[in-house]
Specification:
Layout (H helix, E strand, L loop, with lengths): L4 H15 L6 E5 L3 E4 L11 H22 L4 H24 L9 E6 L1 H34 L1
Antiparallel strand pairs: 1-2, 1-3
Helix pairs in contact: 1-2, 1-4, 2-3, 3-4
Length: 149
């Protein structure tokens, strides 16, 4: 399982998804303090439904990547799950770019996006694409070996 290249890409997706729990997605500027917003439930501010959906998407991506990693005997399913990972991460990137994760009140002056999180999402999309590509190569290799027999 680990000796396959696509397994390394899937492990990378899992670690990138976990890193989103610790890297701030947005910064909230108030009159007195700057607060970071992570992809975890908020305590200080009231979160929007977009933030809740982004948290759910992140955990869904982690679960799908883990299932894809351990479904190494079902390669066709792995390809479909890799494509679903690409969609999940693209939606997550769009949500992080376009929607604020907190309810804007009078106390909040500005909400800024942390673009490092977008880069993490882009690397995850790339890793999911490469994993799907190497799974396809495995399928083609097995089919060619079956033809030789």
């Amino acid at each position: 399982m680990i000796q396959r290249k696509q397994s390394l890409f899937l492990i990378q997706i899992i670690f990138l998804g976990l890193s989103l729990l610790f890297v701030p997605c947005q910064n909230i500027f108030t009159k007195t303090v700057v607060t970071n917003v992570y992809l975890a439930p908020l305590i200080d501010f009231q979160s929007t439904s977009a933030h809740l959906f982004a948290v759910i998407l992140n955990f869904l991506g982690l679960i799908v990547a883990t299932i894809t990693l351990f479904a190494f005997k079902k390669r066709e399913l792995q390809i479909k799950l890799c494509y679903s990972l690409i969609v999940i991460w693209l939606v997550l990137i769009a949500m992080m770019l376009l929607s604020p994760f907190v309810v804007i009140t009078e106390a909040i002056i500005e909400v800024k996006i942390n673009y490092f999180v977008v880069a993490i999402g882009a690397f995850s999309v790339l890793a999911a694409f490469l994993a799907a590509r190497f799974i396809k190569k495995d399928i083609e290799l097995l089919k060619s070996a079956d033809r030789i027999r």
